[in-house]
Every structure is written in structure tokens, then in C-alpha cells.
Design goal:
Elements lengths: L4 H53 L3 H14 L3 H35 L9 H26 L4 H25 L4 H10 L1 H26 L11 H18 L2 H19 L4 H22 L1 H19 L3 H28 L1 H9 L5 H7 L1 H18 L4 H21 L7 H27 L5 H27 L4 H23 L4 H11 L2
Helix pairs in contact: 1-3, 1-4, 1-5, 1-6, 1-11, 1-20, 2-3, 2-4, 2-8, 2-11, 3-4, 3-8, 4-6, 4-7, 5-6, 5-7, 8-16, 9-10, 9-16, 10-14, 11-12, 11-15, 12-15, 12-18, 13-14, 13-19, 14-17, 15-17, 16-17, 18-19
Main location: membrane
Protein name: Polysaccharide biosynthesis protein
Membrane topology: Multi-pass membrane protein
Length: 520
């Protein structure tokens, strides 16, 4: 029987991800009311630069650490796992320091050369500098715990970090607002530091709490070969580079869209303002829903990496196949109904969330991206876990080439416009996922049973029909759009579960077992 450790881990990370998103959304509302559009604009000019520094300084390292630590843990070499962590911690401390100093040095350059148009954003940039160091160190801790398949500590630290960050941001923005918007924006930006520091303290506590337990598990009389510091650092870098390239699919896709879509819409005949508006519906309203819906699959991917890596280290290839197939089945189980529901409720969802029906076109045509991106995330995690990180990296590059071509030609065609951009994104994720599946089948005979795919697709179709007709009937009886949308989603979800139980696709006893184990 397969251990459900990675399923519990995925569930824990999913819940944490949703809580963090909720706190973040609440924070954005408070800050928007407090600072207004101008103040938020100053904050948004600085924060993406900080995210870029953190992304580069810790790119791929957490997953690389989790893979190597999982291998050590599988062989009961807890001393080796701790050594990997210490080396990675030192390496990340150096990286964090360098990129913190780089951000400090870049602040004047970006302002002086008009890369950041408003000089008042300088204060926010400087306020974010020390947070780069602590956020980079934090990445090492999270990778170490994920390697042990202990997802609760990273999840708790994420939630506490976000909460402290938000409280500090709002408090400092409020206190500094009388001195001017630039200082209020800097105060909000500074919130990243106490947030990262608190998250680091939480994980340090969990590390010391579990240290003696790991030492107790160390087999007596067995001395594992200790790798040199240079060997560990080199292996981390070799793993981290392809992992980071494969895991930046969404940032790369959004970057391509930002550079190409507005201009190609103008070629299609849209005025500049119209092109900007269409792009806003697509990138600012449609894509965030895709990202929100794929939080569970992103958590599943993070959880499957150390689980598969552990089995791979022990040469348990049948176990790898079972875990991978379980992860893929769960991916489809979660993403197909979300895709189907968003497809038929695009307009009601657009009205409920954004107060406009005009984003519905982008939302509906981006719905398939939920399933395709989910499959890409999970298959990428599996391939990384079995020591093939280069494969998803090259597959992503191939898919991005198709994305660029499709966006270039389809978006400029008046017949397609923004729909062309949406399908460029869908095909991008689809090609990457299919290529990953091809190599999983080639090397490990991992594939989804066609019969199961058909059953899940049928259940998702029932979900879509139920949600659509429920919404229409509720509107006829005079229910508001928001209430009708929520009840339609609930009725669709209920019908999906009923169909799965009737078809035997969901085992009620197995669900009970997983729930019981997740509480332990």
C-alpha cells in the first residue's frame, strides 16, 4: 500500500496557500483604501524588483535541497541530510547578501535611468533591501523540511510570515502616511522584513525541535560517506539551474504576454486604450483565476518531488509509478471540474469578482489552462524527483516557442484578438505537459488509464451542465448574480462528487483513511 505522506503534504500546502492568498487579498484591499492608486503605484514599482532579486537568489534551490535531502533520508543518512542543509544555508547566506547589496546599489541606478519613472519609489526599494537576505535563507529551511516530507512547518511559517507582513505593512503605512505617500509606501514595503524574519524564526524552532529525533533515527555502526562542501555546492547548482528554468513557466508566460499582446492587439485594429483594456481583462483578471485554481496542483507538485526522490534513491520503481499515477489522477480530479465550471460560469464569475462582464471572454478561453498547467506542474515535479530536471526545462523552452508564434499571429488577427492570446497560453501549457508525459511514459511507463480520463471528463461535463442550469434557474427566480454564482458552483461540486462515487472513481473508505491520516 502506498504511503499517503505526500498526499497529506499536498493537502497541508494547499490549505496554507489558500490562507496566504486570502490574507494577501485582504491586505491589498486595506492598502488600496489607505494609500489610494498613487501610493499603491509607488509600492508596485518597487515590489516586483524585490521579487526578482529573491527569485534569482534562491532560484530552484529549495527544490534542489528537497531532492538531495530526500535521497539522504531514504537511506537513513540523517547526518548527511543535515550536512546538506548546513552547506546550502551557507551558500544561500552568501547569495542573499550579494543580492541584497545588489538591490541597494540598483535603487539609484533604476531611478536615475528612468527604469522606475517615479523617484519617490526609491524609499520603498531601500526598505526592501534587508528582506532579500532573510527571504533567501528562508528558502533553504523550506527546502530542507520538504526533503523530510514535513510540510506542516513550511505551511505554518508561510501563514505566520504573511500575517506578520500584512499587519506590519498596514500599520507602518498608516503611521507614515502623514509624512507623505513615498514614506507610507516605503513603510508598506518594509513589512516584507519582519514577515520573512518571523517565518525564519518559526522554521528555526521546528528545526531544533526535530533535531534530536532525527539523530535518534540514525542507524548505529553505519558511517555514510561525507561529501565535500564543494561537491554539495556543485550538485545544488547543477540541480537548481534546470529546476529554476522549468519552474518559472508562469513568470515567463506573463512576461511574453506583457511584451507582445498589447502591440499585436493594436496590429489587429484596436486603439492603444482598447488594447490596454483587453490586456487587463486577460492578464489582470483571467490569469489570476487560473493561478488561484492551480494552488492545489502546485502544492501537489511540491509534495511529490521529495516523495518520488526518496523512492528513486531506494530503486523502488514500482512505488515511483504508483505515486506518480496517484498524483496525476488527483491533478485531473481537481482541475477538470474547475476548468468546466469556469468555462460555463465565466460571465457570472467576472461580474461577481470584477464588476464587469467584459472579462468573461478571456476567462472562458483561459479555462483549459487550469487543467493543462496543473498537469505541467505535477509532471515537472515527478521528472525532477526522478533526477531528470533537464527534461521539463527543454520541454518548457519548446512550448514557449509555440507560445510566441501563436501569440504573434493569432492575436494580430482581428478574428481572434485576445482569444488568440488565451489559446497561445493554453497550447503553451498543453505542449509542455504532453512532452513531460511522453518522457514519463518512455522512461518509467507512467501514463494515465484512458478509461479513467474518460470517466473524469464525463463527471466534469455533468458538473458544467449542472452549474450552468442551476445559475440560469436561480436568475429566473430573481436571485442576485453573486448568490446565483455561489449556489451554482456548490451544486456543480455536489453533482461532481455524486457522479464520482456512483462511477466508483472515488472510494469512500479511502477518503476516510486519508482524512484520518492527515489529522495525525
Amino acid at each position: 500500500m502506498i504511503k499517503d505522506k505526500f498526499l497529506r503534504g499536498a493537502l497541508i500546502l494547499t490549505v496554507a496557500g489558500l490562507v496566504v492568498k486570502f490574507i494577501g487579498a485582504f491586505n491589498r484591499i486595506l492598502l488600496s483604501r489607505l494609500l489610494g492608486g498613487e501610493g499603491i503605484g509607488l509600492y508596485q514599482m518597487a515590489y516586483p524588483v524585490y521579487l526578482l532579486m529573491v527569485s534569482i537568489s534562491s532560484a530552484g534551490i529549495p527544490i534542489a535541497i528537497s531532492i538531495i535531502v530526500a535521497e539522504k533520508v531514504a537511506k537513513r543518512d540523517f547526518a548527511g541530510a543535515s550536512r546538506i542543509f548546513r552547506v546550502s544555508l551557507g551558500f544561500m547566506a552568501i547569495m542573499g547578501t550579494l543580492f541584497a547589496l545588489l538591490l541597494y546599489g540598483l535603487a539609484n541606478f533604476l531611478i536615475a535611468h528612468d527604469y522606475i519613472r517615479d523617484a519617490r519609489a526609491y524609499y520603498a526599494l531601500i526598505a526592501l533591501t534587508p528582506a532579500v537576505f532573510f527571504a533567501t535563507i528562508l528558502a533553504s529551511f523550506r527546502g530542507f523540511f520538504q526533503g523530510h516530507q514535513m510540510m506542516t512547518p513550511p505551511a505554518i511559517s508561510q501563514i505566520i510570515e504573511q500575517f506578520v507582513r500584512v499587519v506590519t505593512m498596514v500599520a507602518l503605512a498608516y503611521l507614515l502616511l502623514p509624512r507623505g505617500l513615498e514614506y507610507a509606501a516605503a513603510g508598506a514595503a518594509f513589512g516584507a522584513l519582519p514577515g520573512a524574519l518571523t517565518g525564519l524564526l518559526v522554521l528555526t524552532y521546528f528545526y531544533w525541535k526535530n533535531r534530536q529525533r532525527w539523530q535518534a533515527f540514525e542507524p548505529t555502526g553505519v558511517v555514510a560517506k561525507q561529501e565535500k562542501v564543494s561537491e554539495i555546492a556543485l550538485r545544488l547548482v547543477k540541480l537548481a539551474l534546470p529546476v529554476s528554468c522549468a519552474n518559472i513557466m508562469l513568470p515567463v508566460v506573463t512576461g511574453i504576454d506583457m511584451l507582445l499582446v498589447p502591440g499585436r492587439l493594436e496590429v489587429a485594429g484596436y486603439m492603444t486604450e482598447q488594447a490596454t483594456t483587453q490586456f487587463g481583462y486577460f492578464a489582470g483578471m483571467g490569469l489570476p483565476l487560473v493561478m488561484l485554481a492551480t494552488i492545489p496542483t502546485l502544492s501537489l507538485a511540491a509534495s511529490i518531488v521529495p516523495a518520488v526522490s526518496e523512492a528513486f534513491a531506494l530503486h523502488e520503481y514500482e512505488n515511483i509509478k504508483k505515486k506518480a499515477q496517484t498524483a496525476l489522477q488527483l491533478c485531473l480530479l481537481l482541475t477538470l471540474p474547475a476548468m468546466a465550471g469556469l468555462l460555463v460560469l465565466a460571465e457570472p464569475v467576472s461580474l461577481a469578482l470584477y464588476g464587469t462582464r467584459y472579462a468573461a471572454l478571456s476567462i472562458a478561453h483561459l479555462a483549459p489552462a487550469i487543467c493543462l498547467l496543473g498537469l505541467h506542474q505535477v509532471t515537472t515535479g515527478i521528472l525532477q524527483g526522478v533526477g531528470r530536471p533537464m527534461i521539463p526545462m527543454f520541454n518548457m523552452l519548446i512550448s514557449i516557442f509555440f507560445k510566441i508564434v501563436l501569440v504573434w499571429f493569432l492575436t494580430a488577427d482581428p478574428e481572434y484578438g485576445i482569444i488568440g492570446a488565451a489559446w497561445g497560453t493554453n497550447i503553451n501549457f498543453g505542449i509542455a505537459a504532453l512532452l513531460n508525459m511522453f518522457f514519463l511514459n518512455k522512461y518509467f511507463y507512467i501514463a494515465l488509464p484512458l478509461k479513467q480520463v474518460i470517466k473524469l471528463t464525463g463527471a466534469a461535463l455533468v458538473t458544467a451542465l449542472t452549474a450552468y442550469f442551476a445559475y440560469e434557474e436561480l436568475r429566473i427566480f430573481g436571485a442576485s448574480n453573486l448568490l446565483s454564482t455561489l449556489l451554482a458552483i456548490a451544486s456543480g461540486a455536489c453533482s461532481y462528487l455524486i457522479v464520482l462515487v456512483i462511477s466508483g472513481e472515488v472510494d469512500r473508505e479511502k477518503i476516510k483513511q486519508i482524512i484520518k491520516r492527515s489529522k495525525k
